[in-house]
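Support reply, case 0932

Customer input (verbatim):
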Amino acid sequence: NRMVTTLENLKFRVVNVEDGNEESIFGNVVTALNEEAVAGAAYGNKGGINIIVTYEAFGMKMAGELRQEIIFAKHQKDAGRPPKWLSVPLMVASHTWENGKNEQSHQDSALSEVMLGESSDVSRVIFPADYNTSLAVIREVYRTHGELWTVVASKRPFPDLFSPTEAEKCMSEGGMRLRWAEHRGDEAAVSLVAIGSYQLRECIIAARRFKEKDIPVSVTYIMEPGRFRYPRNDGERKHLANEQLWTTIMPPSAKAVVVVTHTRPEPVVSVIQPLWDGRKVRGLGFINEGGTLGADGLIWINKTSWLHIIRSTCQMLDISEDSLLSESEREALDGKRSPVGIV
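Our regenerated output:
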């Protein structure tokens, strides 16, 4: 799960050391197929520094004890005695869009959806998009105390779409507009909102087509959806993104919003409803379609590709698909031909 250097430095903890492996009886890495036990080791080590790493689908086996930690930390905070231990990140790797070889058993985005249901000032759900945003996240998590972070991170190489400065800004504010990916963004008829690295890639490609056809489009990346919700308590209210960002992240001109999310679309579209309130909205995301497919195949069968984004936009803005999509692209969307070579 791309934690090789960490393992080299910290070593597996074992009873009998085997030569040639990253092992030590004093190792700081605890590993087991019992996910609850591994998470419990971290939660029991609050006097130290912790990081939990799991496949996304099996993070759900940690959800119960994670929720109990969130509840207790929230009670302490609300009582005016916030916990002082360093926040604990649960790094969700080998995620839904990357786990084709094991079919649907390894394809499940439920953990982040469940954790978004908890109070967002203590249960922080984060979707870094690239190297720089991932680095910004891991720097920030250990500057905070008494919080449980669910961090959905890609394990595959991905282009750096954010500069280090932009990444720090996105982390501190919860999201940002990608002006370089837009076309006449302040006049945008449609706003593309991405949550997740693969989803951002598809939004950028779709925006390129809109630019070719001179249709104004804005592109927004939401890294922490819980900062854009209707607050349910004082803690969430204080944790919201600043008011200035709310007025700039979604162009007033946008009549339609397409939310393209790593998760199942329904929970996240509901969480960030203040961003699209009063506009037409369409949510695209994981719809439980799986199989032994690569990331591009999973994106296609879950209807979150850039072609699906354009089709959704056409439907909401009442634009003829013929003006934006070629005949072969429409046939692929209609299931009349393979998308291979088209997307």
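We compared this against your earlier run and they match. Two observations from our side: The chain is about 40% helix and 15% strand. Residues 70 and 118 are 8 Å apart (CA to CA). Please reopen the case if you see a mismatch on your end.
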